[in-house]
Amino acid sequence: MPEAFSILIPTYNERENIEPLLTRIVAALPGRDYEVLFVDDDSKDGTAELINRLSAKYPARVEVRKNKKGLASAVIDGFGWAKHDTILVMDADLQHPPEVIPSVITAIDEGADIAVASRRVPGGGTNGWSTFRKITSDGAIMLAHLFLPSSRRVKDPMSGFFAFRRRVIEGVTLAPIGYKILLEMLVTGKAKNVREVPFMFVPREKGKSKLSIKQEIEYAQHLLSLMRRNGVITHFFKFCLVGASGVIVNNGMLWLLHDQGKANWDIRLALLIAIEISIVSNYLLNNYFTFADRHKPGLKHFLANFLRFNLFSLPGAALNWVTTVMLTNTGNLSYLVFNMVGIAAAMMWNFFANSRWTWKKLNTGD
Ligand code: GDD
Ligand code: MN
To answer: Which atom of ligand 1 is nearest to the CA of 75?
Structure first.
């Protein structure tokens, strides 16, 4: 006997969609045990009254919240009201076809902690989207993937159609701003096994979309809030500090080995050694300061991460070495300025590569 689950549907002025939605849900799930829980923000069009009437005929009920508080908070309140251990979230407006529910739930039955109905895997897509909507959606996903590594586990972290096991959010404080509750769960939750199943996001036929420029602004706020809570901003700031110290170590060593008294080594050798010494000092500082919270103990990790760090530093180091040696040979003293530009570019790369692979987040399982 497959496990029972809760279908959680936030609503605001969706009266015309409720009965077609319930009819299609019931038709799509023969022989399954489930409840349909609507969380309505006191709709003005009689949505909640209709659901109450239909609850005699369908396995549905509604919780009404006074004072409209928004989509994400409706969904989070719903987590507390839902009866079952597996919760599926979807929209009421039929843009999420109920016929897709079985494949999402099957992924959970097969062991996924989160299963996402995705527009961005083969077989999935969107229908009737303007070029503008496509570009903003691509941009939103790119930003999330760039700044929040744990969102890279899915191609469609913006989907509002997904299911999960309660254990994913146990002990986790969810604080989304706006619409993107799945993104919030991917980044702050405890999911190890995440799967995507395809679906086609179809145009809305009845009622109105509540999406507006307000949601775009809220998305930017949400992204920043997740970056802050996830430590990305602190990590980046500390990484830059350490990078700056590395510039001093690098130039200081170069000066000692190349310019000073008896040493007077050839610039090519002196720079090579200066660069490596600054890589070592950067590594130590990043390991015990910048990423102290992700630091894994043990010599094995220390050495493996040191190798990784050197590998990622290679492009920047090569750039540094080539520019400095070349400019020094032409006798131009402004080589330090060029050196700084090269170092800045290298630092962006170094940060993203190392926060992704060298000091990756501990509990995301990716
Ligand atoms: N309770 C409550 N309160 N429900 C709301 C609110 C609110 O303030 N605002 C919207 N809803 C409900 C709607 O009634 C609908 O069931 C669902 O949330 C989605 O709202 P739409 O207005 O239809 O959103 P959308 O189609 O633009 O956005 C959907 O697709 C996006 C991906 O393109 C949502 O699923 C988003 O989560 C998703 O990111
Ligand atoms: Mn919609």
So the answer is: 1
Distance from Cα 196 to the centre of ligand 1, integer Å: 20
Residues 42, 264: Cα–Cα separation, whole Å: 79
Measured in degrees and rounded to the nearest 5, phi and psi for residue 37 equal -115, 115
Residue whose C-alpha is closest to residue 104's, from 125, 84, 87, 127: 87
- Is the Cβ atom of 179 under 6 angstroms away from ligand 1? yes
CA-wise closest residue to 207 among 77, 25, 43: 43
**Number of the ligand 1 atom closest to the C-alpha atom of 215:** 27
Q: List pLDDT tens digits, range 111-157.
A: 999 999 999 999 999 998 999 989 999 999 999 998 898 899 999 99
Task: List the beta strands (DSSP E) in the chain.
Answer: 5-11, 34-40, 60-64, 86-89, 114-118, 125-126, 162-165, 194-198, 200-201
Token match 């159609």: residue? 161
Helices 101-109, 15-28: crossing angle, 10 deg rounding: 50
State the Cα–Cα distance between residues 184 and 188, nearest whole angstrom. Answer: 6
Identify the weakest region by mean pLDDT among 79-83, 137-141, 318-322: 318-322
The residue count for the chain: 366
Residue type, 40: D
